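Re: the request from the purification team.
They wanted to know what the chain is likely to look like in 3D before they choose a buffer screen. I agreed to run a prediction and write the result into the notebook, where they can find it.
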Amino acid sequence: MSSVLERRLVVVSGKGGVGKTTVAAALGLVGARRGLRTIVVEVTGGAAGDAATGTGRLASLLGHPEPPAHGVETPLRDGLWTLSIDRDRVLAEWLRAIGGRVPARVLTSSSSFQYMIAAAPGAREMIAMVKLWELAEGRRPANRKPQGGDLLGGERDYDLVVFDAPATGHALAMLRSPHTFGAIARVGPVARQAGQVRELLEDPARSAYLAVTHATEMGVTETLELCAGLRRELRREPDAMIVNGTLPRRFAHGELQRIAALDGTAVAGGRAAATVAKSDPATADAATVTAAAVRAANAVHERALAQQRQIVRLRRGAGTHDDAPPVLRVPFMFRPELDLDALERIADRLARGL
């Protein structure tokens, strides 16, 4: 992973709920710390039922008080920005660019336009990917200033674009969209843009992929599906797999034996608790606490073992070849909710792994 932060675009994806937005935000912190002008991008909107990333969650994680307006590159701290791309809105902007004076709302509401979008699956995804390409390559027209939600212009260039992609299936659909449109539009500006985006996504010198998962059976299964999808669609492997929320193995073999010895005492004490409670309540309370502590210790140990088994499965599924993607663990944060301090700690762990 030594070269991940040297790429122009880093795509972060994984099963929904495994913390990919957290990892993307933490990676943004790492980039900014290293002096890279970094922007973390999320995508919202799209067809009904589409699974997109959260609106403004990135900004909230990074300590911004309000969700940024769609299409506005919002500064969060020195060297770090965030951007939310609404797929419907960028589609309207594209329509304004090709439709002249015809209002975008008129075009989007027409039945012929809706038929065209239905006949060309991935239109919104393709246009959103073009915006990522513009950010990563610094190819936005310099004479166009960003105004409100206008993503077609701008004067700011970035060293690193971190894309908080949707969950696995929808992310693969977005990454597939340049190929889809390249096949539909074989010539012309759309075909050219599709080719440029696909070249960026396939180029290991300019783009990287991070697969985020939990150490659970379902999470690992979906991560291996993401790996297979990247191979199939882009002939790429993940540059790293990040296992979020891992637990430490707290007990050595000898400690587990001593805990097992306590278990017998605790059970006996627990059975006798009702008998001795009136005469010796302190003894009964101690037995109850001991039994609870033994159960908690065994539960934590078993959960850590279960996670370890899934991490081994993840490593084997990714392959045993020399260039198999490394697995980086991010520890579970024992706090009621994730705050900026916890995010900084996760960034520390990623920085060591990167």
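For the purification team: Residues 253-303 form one domain.
Please add any questions underneath this entry.
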